Amino acid sequence: MNKSAHKLEWQAAEGVEGMTVREFLRSTKGMSARTLTAVKTHGALLVNNQPARMNEHLSVGDNVSVWLAEKRSSGAVPYYNFPLDVSWSDEHLWVVNKPADLPVLPGRRKSEEAPEPSLAGAVLYAFDQAGIPSAFHAVSRLDRQTSGLMPVALHAYAHQRLAAFFQRGMGEKRYIGVVYGVPKQSRGFWNGPIGRKDTSLIEHEVRENGKPARTYYEVLQEYQDAALIRFILGSGRTHQIRVHCAEAGHPLIGDSLYGRESPFISRQALHAESLRFVHPVTEEEHELSSEMPGDMLDLLEKL
Predict the structure, then answer these.
(1) What is the topology classification, in CATH, of domain 6-68?
(2) Helix (H/G/I), strand (E/B), else coil: 220
(3) Which residue ranges of the chain lie beneath pLDDT 50?
(4) 295 is known as an active-site residue
(5) What is the pLDDT of residue 1?
(6) Do 78 and 106 contact (CB within 8 A), yes or no?
(7) pLDDT of 99
(8) Measuring CA to CA, which residue among 15, 7, 13, 19 is closest to residue 56?
(9) How far apart are CA 28 and CA 6, in angstroms?
(10) Cβ atoms of 171 and 159 closer than 8 Å
């Protein structure tokens, strides 16, 4: 196995004695059947630094190592030489601080035009420069005009497991935004199901047959006809905060799709300000924060 590939390593703790390696990886470490198959065909499995089989039984204290095969970029996303702001990183996960006006993935353009810059392209360029054998695995995505913290996995297992942790409520994503008007209640939640609008390929709305969505909010500061609000996602639907704000009658300032433009900011005033997560491999909890960007601070001064 190429040692530049991704290595996962655990020590068998009490309660797993007698388990097979397969049972340990599936039930204790949440490894998918697809990843297990990939380990058997293209990776490597070691117990106490010796080649092992999936049906071998474990004892307490055994060291289990899994080598995942390299999976580099397919080349479909053009590299983008950009000064990437990496807030946290290790060999399994990066958390990047995405600027506004940068899409996560490039849009579709005619072949004769220059490829669109993207966060994925910037991450892949950084991977290439660092010699990291990885494709782009966004665990969650931010809209083009939304800034802030976004986790990117370095391999499929980290992607799958971190996403599962978030779905189980093991972690929290907090956003801060500025809306038109002031909600009547200073805190609460919006609970409308969200689906794509029939007449649009982009726009979403609260609709009866949409997917369940819940957004918790807290008013942090009131202005004459605006409010600074913190949002916590109880689900992760496309445009969720933007749709729920608009449905409540308080669209984000500058959101031209769900509200109206503003002379004081050139995008929707929304920033992913903090991220709490359980690491997909070590299972340690981490919490990161990102300062409010300058354009939103300027907006607040003008309200």
Answers:
(1) 3.10.290
(2) strand
(3) 1-4, 110-112
(4) no
(5) 47
(6) yes
(7) 97
(8) 19
(9) 19
(10) no
